[in-house]
Amino acid sequence: MSNKKNIEPLVGEELLQKVKDLGSASKEEKARECGYYTETKNGVERVNMMKFLNALIDAEGIQLDSKAVGGGRGGRSASYKITVQSNNNLLIGAAYTKQMGLKEGDVFNITLGRKHIHLKQVDANGDEANGDD
């Protein structure tokens, strides 16, 4: 059996700070230290450079792709579709909240239609904000 540690890969500011702290280490060492590796059944470590580099790009807020254009793999871009999860929750991902400029703590009133959900942002006074949805 291996001594594999289940380490959650760093993201965001934590990732950027760790990479900075690692200074002159190789990119493979930085990726491994930030949790971007797996261990095979035979105990061989494999560094996942693509995930590491993509996480760095995301952490820096760099937008490589313009809004979804044409074919190819979408990755984490907004697909404008969500699926009810096994626990009956609907998860609206970060791609949508970033696109709308929402921040942690923003509050919304929910109105249910027959087959739609309408969110109306609430301002600091608890009043519905007058915006151009």
List keywords for this structure.
single chain; 133 residues; alpha+beta; two-stranded antiparallel ribbon; 4 strands; 27% helix; elongated
Summarize the structure in short.
Pfam families: AbrB-like (PF14250). The chain is α+β, with helices and mostly antiparallel strands. It has helices spanning about 10-20, 25-35, 50-60, 95-100; strands at about 35-40, 45, 105-110, 115-120.
Give an overview of the whole structure.
There is one protein chain. The chain is an alpha+beta fold and 133 residues long. The protein has a domain at 12-60. The chain is 27% helix and 14% strand. It is built from 4 helices and 4 strands. It has helices at 12-21, 27-33, 49-60, 94-100, and strands at 37-39, 45-47, 107-112, 117-122. The strands form 2 sheets. A two-stranded antiparallel ribbon has the order 1-2. Helix 1 crosses helix 3 (49-60). The protein starts with 11 loop residues before the first helix and ends in an 11-residue tail after the last strand. The model is unreliable at 68-74 (pLDDT under 50).
